[in-house]
Amino acid sequence: MSKIRKGDQVVVLTGKDKGKRGTVLRVVPEVDRAVVEGINRVKKHAKPNPMKGVTGGIIEKEMSIHVSNIAIFNPAASKADRVGYKTLDDKRKVRVFRSNGEVVDA
After folding, report:
1. SS3 of residue 80 by DSSP
2. pTM greater than the 0.85 cutoff
3. Angle at alpha carbon of residue 102, lines to 10 and 19, rounded to 5°
4. 21-68 pLDDT, tens per residue?
5. Would you say 24 and 34 are in contact if contact means Cβ atoms under 8 Å apart?
């Protein structure tokens, strides 16, 4: 079970986008990285490919960011928070905020 999942609201802790918030679009667990909407945007030079219908030029896209540089957003505290795990009475393992113990997954 990953501490950060697709669809989570996260806050960037370090780097050029420090303090920005975004939604996780994709998680790559093999390398502990995540792609966050609007974060770590880069300009990429793309070659045209008429077979796929891709036009060439400079495109902007989001690149991945290491999960150690982002933290999940806690709406109750309105700031970044760490995540822990808790096993409920019905044997389900859920993610909880470390600061107040509330369940992350609604």
Report:
1. strand
2. no
3. 20
4. 999 999 999 999 999 999 999 999 999 999 999 899 999 999 999 999
5. yes
Total length of the chain? 106
Record the tokens describing residue 51, joined without a space: 């077979």
Query: Sign of the CA dihedral 70, 73, 7, 61?
Result: negative
The pair of three-digit structure tokens given for residue 4, joined into one six-digit string: 């950060």
11 by Cβ neighbours in 10 Å (0-12 / 13-18 / 19+) ranks as buried
Q: What type of residue sits at position 106?
A: A
Nearest to 10 by CA among 23, 1, 19, 28: 23
Closest CA to 96 of 1, 7, 18: 1
Could you tell me the domains of the chain?
Answer: 9-80 (2.30.30.30)
Give the integer Cα–Cα distance in Å for 1 and 49: 39
CB 84 within 8 A of CB 95: yes
Give the count of beta carbons closer than 10 Å to the beta carbon of residue 48.
11
